[in-house]
Amino acid sequence: MKYNLYRWSPSEDEIRKARKEIAEHETAIGSLQARIDGLVQQARRIEEQKRNHYDAIAKCRSVLTLANRLPTEVLARIFEIAVQDGWTRGPIAVSQVCSSWREASKTPSVWSYMYIDCDKGNPVGRCNLWLRMARQSLLHITLRTAEQISMLDAIFSLISAHILRWRSFALEASTVQSANYVLSCITTPGPYLKEVSIKVGDSSLALPLPEFAQVQNQLSELKGAFGGALSLRRLTLATDICQSWVGLPQITSLNLQLNDCQLSAARPILASEIVRALSESINLIELSINISRKDKRDFQLEHDDLVTLPELHSLTLSLPIPFMAFIQHIRAPKLQSLFMRCPDDPQGFATESTREAIRRFFDESMPPLKIMELYDVDISQDDFAFCFNFLSSLEELRLHGSEISDGTIRLLDPSIGFLPMLSKLDLRWCGHITGEALEEVVRSRSLASAYGHDISPLNELIVISCSVVNEKQILGIVNYCTCRLKMRDVDDYCLHRGCCDNLRYRNRFRSRVKINPEQAVRIIV
Predict the structure, then answer these.
(1) Which residues make Cβ contacts (< 8 Å) with residue 103, sequence separation at least 6?
(2) Which distant-in-sequence residues (6+ apart) come within 8 Å of 193 by Cβ?
(3) Three-class DSSP category at 278
């Protein structure tokens, strides 16, 4: 083959032919593009038709959903629970879903939970709307005070006109002074008022106050506002200092909380002031005191200050370990449930003064406890033995995060005679207890009960994140009692804190052990 080494130039005919061919290809491309555009438009129309069918299907399915088939009163009850849990805009939101939800949302009880923030939006209009929709139903009012007194007065004039229908009243104020102002406006609450909550924060109480200024930081108007509310039974007070706490003689449930203080130079927490508030609520059945372990203030105990609560059945102390010594100031001869909690406290073991206070409480109150829980409150084996000696009626023992040993568990052996009525033992994060000791105690109590001894077997054992208890020992334990590897459903403190990694433990247990049908009914995973 020969190659042309010289530059080639097309002829005029070749140029016309090439241009003609280019034009034909361009025409064909245009025709194809037009077809493509038509097909795209057709596909879009088809997609739109498909979406219409999907929408029609969704509408038809909505007719079949449980939410639309529920009776109106059931839907209304669901909405009421949602609002009660804090969904303040719930009534407006659910009324815009569909006709059946709109009808259910018109139920007056759905609108009976009113949250009024005087500094946001249009609180007067919102208040009027909720009152109009609530009609004659009992009212649960939460009022957040305003910086402007005029706005606060306008709101309070509206809700006070319905004071006879108050079922509960919660006040959130930035200072004690503003809280007292609102309380001073409350007169003659109705017979339906059962619960009152006062939360005061962001005040100037972080620094020590002179004596003449301390009087101004008491909730002095609380008794005047609710002293005549004869049906009032539950009172919650959350303040900056315990000096603000006040009791009422008619209440049976009292919840006292202190806001965190990060200044070590602040005014100390005085046990005498807590005792004073408790002495004003002599008919208490339930008492809860909550002070964060992060609080930097000192705690001063006055050993001569005592308060006797003759009807107290339940006592919950969520306090730093040193503050737990306050229990020695309480006498509760009918106490049935005791919960002592200091979650995640790095200090661990209780101080000598705290341990002595616990022993003194049991020695002088001799409470007929049925339930006792220690959460990150570590005491010695001798302390347990001392307390167990007073707990002949105890039915449930919960030890969470306790550094107890096998020796403490063996105190439950029937030969020793402690806790003869104990039927439930709840152990969590107890890193020193072995499965052998648990299996031994469970077996011995079961056999003693079977042979007619006056001692209750352990019917239920809860073991969560106890590292020295293995699966083989758990399978041995289930021959005598139910072994639970999960938390309770409702009243479990760990469940509300969200700090229990029992799911990982359950999965590990399932992957390593095969459970036969007979054992499965005694292992709750």
Answers:
(1) 72
(2) 166, 167, 168, 169, 226, 229, 231, 232
(3) helix
Query: In terms of residues, how long is the chain?
Result: 525
- Domain ranges across the chain: 63-111, 395-525
Q: Within 13 Å and on the Cβ side, how many CA atoms surround 300?
A: 9
**What ranges make up the beta strands (E) of 138-251?**
139-144, 166-173, 195-200, 234-239
Written as six digits, the tokens of 278 are 């408790």
Q: What angle do CA 463, 467, 469 make, to 5 degrees?
A: 60
Helices (H), 5-85: 12-64, 66-69, 72-84
Alpha carbon distance 57, 50 (integer Å): 10
Q: pTM score, two decimals?
A: 0.79
Contact 212, 175 (CB under 8 A): no
Q: In Å, what is the CA distance from 27 to each residue of 16, 37, 149, 299, 366? A: 17, 15, 81, 94, 104
CB atoms inside a 10 Å sphere around CB 321: 22
The residues that bridge with 195 in the sheet, in sequence order, are 168, 234
DSSP class of residue 326? G
List the structure tokens of 312. 């107290």
Token pair listed for 177: 């002074």
Per-residue pLDDT of the chain (525 residues; tens, 9 = 90+): 445 555 668 888 888 898 999 999 999 999 999 999 999 999 999 999 999 998 888 777 766 666 667 788 888 888 888 888 878 788 888 888 777 888 888 888 889 998 888 888 788 888 899 899 988 999 999 998 877 788 888 888 899 889 999 999 999 988 888 899 899 988 888 899 999 999 998 544 444 444 434 445 788 899 999 998 999 999 999 998 888 899 999 999 999 999 888 776 678 888 888 999 999 999 999 999 999 888 888 888 876 789 999 999 999 999 988 899 999 999 999 999 999 998 776 666 788 889 999 999 999 999 999 999 999 888 999 999 999 999 999 999 999 888 888 999 999 999 999 999 999 999 988 888 999 999 999 999 999 999 888 999 999 999 988 888 888 888 899 889 888 877 665 667 776 665 544 444 444 444 444 555 555 446 665
Q: Do the bridges between strand 286-291 and strand 307-308 make them parallel or antiparallel, or are there none, so unpaired? A: unpaired
Tell me which amino acid residue 393 is: S
Do residues 274 and 326 make contact, with C-beta atoms less than 8 angstroms apart? yes
Query: By C-alpha distance, which of 49, 45, 95 is closest to 72?
Result: 95
Nearest to 351 by CA among 325, 374, 371: 325
Q: Whose CA is closest to 487, among 374, 398, 371?
A: 398
Given a contact cutoff of 8 angstroms between Cβ atoms, the answer to whether 285 and 312 are in contact is yes
Distance CA 438, CA 464 (A): 13
Q: Output phi, psi for 404, to 5 deg.
A: -85, 160
Given a contact cutoff of 8 angstroms between Cβ atoms, the answer to whether 456 and 445 are in contact is: yes
